[in-house]
User: Which sequence fits this backbone?
């Protein structure tokens, strides 16, 4: 019997597999379709201080082994989240991480404060990297200095473990990761969606109303693995949450080996609402099959001949 | 609540079904008969399921399909092969496993003893055949007329099943090869201020939407949008609403009242 338990940023998790933000609603939507207590935790839809209506349609389109979305960070707002959504999450029997963002820099700290002091929230995950709001996350998420200031402000606004979700749409993700950790981040979620575009040649139009959107699904797994590994190799001293195209237990194992302590299952939830629980079962089976007693032993256990690395990330 | 709301009394389930039969009705149009669908027993006409075969990661997302029939643990879906996913479904064979999530969403209001016009375009027929069969079971078929349109005669399917319901049937084809020549919206019998129930291509629904609002007719439209999950977590299937900025085809619909939609 494999031990899937893991602990990170002072919090214990029943398994290292969480449901990713924006793919699991506020968990109640999925409660009839999966066993929430069987997974490590749920990361909620991103919350902003005020409710947001989101972007015009079409908001999603399918691409090879993936999809592009531009939902526009639609959410109920911090106050409605705490009154209407948190009570269910609190009783759900799983860990709750609340993803949050602001439309302006000062709104980040405001939101972190508004989400603090309530029972039932185990950690906050800052979204500094969503490509889908105008003048929004992307700029914060691509400049280490700006990101660092933002994290510092949120650090002062909350005593909850503070995770930062990083954008892959950067040249040097290690520089960003380092800035966030130096500013007080307790963990890093790697990666958010990859900026992308799809074209309908017959209509001669982009397939997403906002033209660009975020690519997710198995198509981005190799990019995500590379970035998790790069940041892990920089040994910044905080746990990493690996995200990007995880569909199976073996996918999860790959991220753990690359250096993640926890993983998040995202787009797979759209095809299979039981995906995070299934990934837990498959990860346990993978461990049993490969002689691993504790899933946490996989973290960072990738066998790499570093002399063969073509360049030195974060060096 | 559930009947008037067009929703099943049962919560949705995610389960594997098995293809019993894949029946071709016209080129590219087929009916999948699935077993193991006991969880769909309470499905209301107009509700839908998300379906996906075991074909790997491409295409990744399940496909939303209106339910056409449920009986004794079986279900039937009427599908037209138009893209990657539906072409793979078209090739499915007896014994293949299809994952099903449902029943989902809000369906049509149930049959009543009042004048009702059903408008079906193409495979939009599925939920309206289900509705007509329900009307027949309740002895309410004489109150309904089904206007069913397609491009050409060969695309009009399941005519015998439709006739068996006893619902008055009007056909229309764009090329005039069967029934009236033209689109369904050209031949609608609107005398007696009927309630309209419609499912079909979006241009057809938009035309009905305008017509219903102009004439103050009660009108229920089964809408179609790009859909990722079917359960209101991806928020992909948004369409503009009148009372709220956005409605979700998966959970506010797929059947929406015309006045709820800002088209």
Assistant:
């Amino acid at each position: 019997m494999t031990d899937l338990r893991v602990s990170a940023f002072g919090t214990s998790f029943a398994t290292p597999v969480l449901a990713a933000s924006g793919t699991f609603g506020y968990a109640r939507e999925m409660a009839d379709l999966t066993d929430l207590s069987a997974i490590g935790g749920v990361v909620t839809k991103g919350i902003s201080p005020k409710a947001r209506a989101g972007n015009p349609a079409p908001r999603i389109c399918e691409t090879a082994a993936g999809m592009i979305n531009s939902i526009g960070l639609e959410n109920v707002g911090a106050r409605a989240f705490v009154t209407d959504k948190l009570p269910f999450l609190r009783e759900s029997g799983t860990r709750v991480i609340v993803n949050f963002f602001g439309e302006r820099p000062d709104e980040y700290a405001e939101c972190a404060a508004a989400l603090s002091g309530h029972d039932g929230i185990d950690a906050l995950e800052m979204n500094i990297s969503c490509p889908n709001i105008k003048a929004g996350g992307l700029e914060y998420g691509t400049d280490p200095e700006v990101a660092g200031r933002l994290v510092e402000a949120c650090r002062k606004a909350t005593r909850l473990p503070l995770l930062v979700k990083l954008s892959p749409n950067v040249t040097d993700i290690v520089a960003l990761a380092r800035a966030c950790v130096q500013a007080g981040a307790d963990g890093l979620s790697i990666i958010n969606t990859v900026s992308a575009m799809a074209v309908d040649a017959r209509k001669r139009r982009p397939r997403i109303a906002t033209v660009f959107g975020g690519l997710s699904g198995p198509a981005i797994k190799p990019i995500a693995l590379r970035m998790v590994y790069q940041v892990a190799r920089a040994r910044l001293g905080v746990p990493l949450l690996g995200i990007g195209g995880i569909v199976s237990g073996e996918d999860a194992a790959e991220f753990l080996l690359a250096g993640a302590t926890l993983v998040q299952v995202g787009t797979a939830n759209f095809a299979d609402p039981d995906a995070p629980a299934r990934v837990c079962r498959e990860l346990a089976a993978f461990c049993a099959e490969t002689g691993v007693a504790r899933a946490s032993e996989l973290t960072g256990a990738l066998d790499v001949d570093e002399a063969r690395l073509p360049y030195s990330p974060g060096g | 609540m559930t009947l008037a709301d067009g929703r099943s009394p049962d919560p949705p389930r995610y389960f594997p079904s098995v293809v019993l039969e894949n029946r071709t009705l016209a080129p590219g149009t087929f009916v999948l008969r699935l077993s193991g669908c006991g969880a769909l027993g309470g499905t209301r006409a107009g509700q839908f399921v998300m379906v996906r075969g075991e074909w790997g990661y491409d295409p990744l997302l399940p496909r939303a399909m209106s339910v056409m029939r449920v009986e004794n643990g079986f279900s039937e879906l009427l599908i037209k092969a138009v893209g990657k996913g539906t072409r793979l479904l078209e090739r499915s064979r007896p014994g293949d496993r299809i994952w099903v999530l449902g029943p989902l969403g809000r369906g049509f209001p149930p049959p009543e003893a009042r004048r009702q016009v059903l408008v079906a375009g193409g495979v939009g027929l599925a939920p309206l055949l289900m509705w007509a069969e329900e009307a027949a079971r309740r002895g309410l078929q004489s109150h309904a007329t089904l206007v069913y349109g397609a491009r050409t005669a060969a695309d009009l399917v399941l005519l015998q099943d439709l006739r068996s319901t006893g619902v008055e049937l009007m056909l229309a084809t764009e090329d005039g090869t069967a029934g009236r020549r033209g689109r369904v919206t050209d031949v609608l019998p609107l005398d007696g201020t009927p309630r309209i129930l419609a499912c079909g291509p979006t241009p057809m629904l938009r035309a009905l939407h305008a017509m219903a609002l102009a004439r103050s007719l009660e009108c229920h439209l089964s809408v179609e949008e790009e859909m990722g999950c079917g359960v209101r977590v991806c928020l992909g299937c948004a369409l503009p609403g009148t009372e709220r900025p956005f409605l979700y085809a998966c959970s506010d619909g797929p059947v929406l009242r015309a006045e709820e939609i800002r088209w």
About this structure: The radius of gyration of chain B is 17 Å. Chain B is about 15% helix and 35% strand. Helices of chain B lie at 2-5, 84-90, 125-137, 159-165, 202-215. The mean pLDDT of chain B is 95.
